[in-house]
Amino acid sequence: TDDKNFFVGDSLIFDYDKTSFNFDDVTEVTGRLEFEYCDPTAAKAVHKTGHDVVTLTEPGIHYFINSAPGKCNAGQKLRVLVLSDPSYHASIPRPSDPPSSGKVFKVGDSNGWTAKADPMWYEGKNFVVGDSLLFQYEKDLDNVV
């Protein structure tokens, strides 16, 4: 979608066979970290009809993933930049993603944030200002205080 212009009021149509095991849903997630790590727990919306029409109602970057385990990691995800006014598209170059201000570290590494997580997961890592910590956990079992 990097070569496409999308504007507020445009619609995305996701057509897929909902009975197929290749595509289970379209989940709009809240941000870049959820998109990069294929984390559907903070979903803004979940669509499952097989013919999902998503109207883009606000400018900014919108993130869509397949929430089925392994599907998003295999590439079933979409990032869309939505601009506010179509009259500007001819005169203003398409903005790129803001530069990353640092690395993203998943707390607990592959185990995530659990009671059984290795308390020394951070050894050997160099944290600097601008880095982010991603806490991925089961909301009914664990928390971050």
UniProtKB/TrEMBL annotation:
<dbReference type="InterPro" id="IPR039391">
    <property type="entry name" value="Phytocyanin-like"/>
</dbReference>
<dbReference type="GO" id="GO:0009055">
    <property type="term" value="F:electron transfer activity"/>
</dbReference>
<dbReference type="Pfam" id="PF02298">
    <property type="entry name" value="Cu_bind_like"/>
</dbReference>
<dbReference type="InterPro" id="IPR003245">
    <property type="entry name" value="Phytocyanin_dom"/>
</dbReference>
<dbReference type="GO" id="GO:0005886">
    <property type="term" value="C:plasma membrane"/>
</dbReference>
<dbReference type="InterPro" id="IPR008972">
    <property type="entry name" value="Cupredoxin"/>
</dbReference>
<keyword id="KW-0325">Glycoprotein</keyword>
<feature type="domain" description="Phytocyanin">
    <location>
        <begin position="1"/>
        <end position="84"/>
    </location>
</feature>
<protein>
    <submittedName>
        <fullName>Mavicyanin</fullName>
    </submittedName>
</protein>
<feature type="domain" description="Phytocyanin">
    <location>
        <begin position="103"/>
        <end position="145"/>
    </location>
</feature>
<keyword id="KW-1015">Disulfide bond</keyword>
